[in-house]
Amino acid sequence: MIEEMLDRLAEYQAQADLLALDKQALINQVKIPAEVLAAQDEANKRRQAIDSDFQKRQRVAREYSQYLMGELIKPQLPPEYVAAMEKYRLECEAINGQCERDIETDQENAINEKAKIDNDLQVKVADVYRQAETRKAEITAEFADKQDAVKDNIDKLTQEIKNATIQEGKTVKGQFYQAVYVRGRVTWITDMLDGMVIAFPELAKARKEGTPSVTLRKI
Fold it and tell me: In whole angstroms, how far apart are CA 19 and each of 13, 94, 169?
């Protein structure tokens, strides 16, 4: 009787393991389509290209600014020195100012281009990822009832095996599991032992035996 229940418990556990494997296999099949991953990779490459191009244009703009200022003829020290130097300073500021404005405009354009890439990518992939997560949740929900039912069977049968083994009073082996009978722990009430001699028969009153228990082990 107990042997049969132990073998049935092994079958329930095998069902639980198989359900867990089937569930994980289905979840593993929920993958992000290759075209979506390719779109993400392409977007990253475009962003990198924009950054690289902007840095090159920024470097060229600054080099050209330096070139233009190098072309200016720095005045010598004629009587009109102060006015000439002021004009020279203003021309340099104008060139630098224009260069910085061009760089700012270029940078703003680059930021806008990357934002557009991000927005376009978000539109393409957001729904795909949302569908993937929804499908995984559906799979988990589909298996929940089945796994709960198997777990209930395992819990109920385990308790029946323990109760039957306690009544049997010994360890019972099945094909895959064994119900190990564990005698109740024996304890002594030390207060009752104080002042008593071992030979006194009343000493037996100090003996307490706990409730036996059963441990199920895989063989």
Answer: 10, 75, 35
**Long-range CB contacts for residues 152-157, cutoff 8 Å, separation at least 24:** 153/12, 154/9, 154/12, 154/13, 154/16, 157/5, 157/8, 157/9, 157/12
- Which amino acid, 103? I
Predicted TM-score (pTM) of this structure: 0.54
User: What pLDDT digit, counting tens, does each position of 153-210 carry?
Assistant: 999 999 999 999 999 889 999 888 899 998 888 776 666 766 675 667 776 666 666 7
Chain segment 17-76, per-residue pLDDT in tens: 999 998 989 988 888 888 888 888 888 888 888 888 888 888 888 887 787 777 766 666
Task: Give the 3-state secondary structure percentages of the chain, helix then strand then coil, rounded to 5.
Answer: 75, 10, 15
Burial of residue 159, with CB atoms counted within 10 A of its CB: 0-12 exposed, 13-18 middle, 19 or more buried: exposed
Looking only at the bridges linking them, the beta strands covering 177-182 and 213-218 are antiparallel
β-strand partners of 209? 186
Distance (Å, rounded) from C-alpha 104 to C-alpha 58? Answer: 9
Nearest-CA neighbor of 10 among 165, 173, 119, 126?
173
Please list the residues that pair with 216 across neighbouring strands.
179
